[in-house]
Amino acid sequence: MSELSERGRSGGTGAPLRVALVLDRFEGGPARAAVTAALALDPDAYTHTVITGERGGLEAWAERWGVEVVRAPGRYALAEVIGAGAYDVVHTHEGTAGRLAAARAGVPRVVHTWYFPPAPTLAERRAARHTGMFLAVGTRTASRALRLGLASPERLRAIWPAVALPDRAGTRTRARQLLGLPLGAQVVGGIGPAHGARRPDVFARAIARLPGGVYGVWADGDGGPAARLPGRVGRGFTERLGGERLIWLGRRDDIADLLPGFDVLAMTGRHEGVPYAAVEAAAAGVPLVGTVAPSGPDIIRAGETGLLTAPGNPAQLADAIGYLLDNPAEARRMSRAALKRVADRCDPRSLSVTLDLVYRGSSPAV
């Protein structure tokens, strides 16, 4: 039995396990999910440190919860921090450098989470050989890892992201005030970094196909105002397609407060796992439209918990959004089913049980 398992069998009477959470950038859904899950673990059994290459918008939030944040820009700084940290577990959430540095430092347990299907690169294959356990967000992510031979069945668990579900007491009136839109308007939301993989251009083209009373609001988790967006979705593009009906909010840290103001959440990404924003939206009762790639179907069962469309198809996306806007009873039925689907699966306490088993080396094969 491993030293970590022995500590677990001691009933928490020994020193807590020191866990490092390694992220390239400390912002966005993966970073928030990583810390949310960590905070659900027994604080007497675990301490956590976030090691990040770039500081982000979540730093103050994490430190309010007592999570130390250490900046390590570049692979050499990362290796130095991990080597000096005397960590029991290194849990990486992006890239390969953290896993390799942990292996060189002799960290007893190395865990990695894939948030979307991995690529069969030489770097990934090398890092995989030094990884004790993998977590995969979404069944398609897990399936691809197995097909590529990056993980064996006993070293892999498919999970859902840990999301602290928002309080549904947040009002539509307040959300519309924050959005600057009237209560009677129909509003379609999009959430995430406004870069190519998320396809904000598909979102914009879909909004342009909808009637004049429909607004599209994109809350960008990584970028700034419309003037700083990529050329495909900059001011000129916005004006040509939807004019004032397309609103780019820039970076926001109040997404949970905005969600009740959306009539539909549209997910247009090509490479997402189970999107963090989709889980929050389902919890807030917002109907969902998403794509079939790669793990959209994990949260959206077509016609049951939302509607699915082909990636990169604005006409199909517009049709699906229009259907939900025109059929509010159907939209409510699907949103209730989506809430039921995510409520237990994404509870941080559920993932904390998995993490406890994985960190202590006693996780059964899945």
From TrEMBL:
**Occurrences of domain Glycosyl transferase family (ranges):** 241-340
Task: Give the molecular function GO annotations.
Answer: glycosyltransferase activity
Q: Which residues form a coiled coil?
A: none
Keywords per UniProt: Glycosyltransferase, Transferase
Kindly indicate whether the keyword Acetylation belongs to this entry: no
An example Pfam family from this entry, by short name, is Glycos_transf_1
Q: Does the keyword Transcription regulation apply?
A: no
SUPFAM superfamilies named among the record's database cross-references: UDP-Glycosyltransferase/glycogen phosphorylase
Gene3D superfamilies xrefs: Glycogen Phosphorylase B
Q: Which InterPro entries match?
A: Glyco_trans_1
Know the name of this protein? Glycosyl transferase family 1 domain-containing protein
Q: Which organism is it from?
A: Actinoallomurus iriomotensis
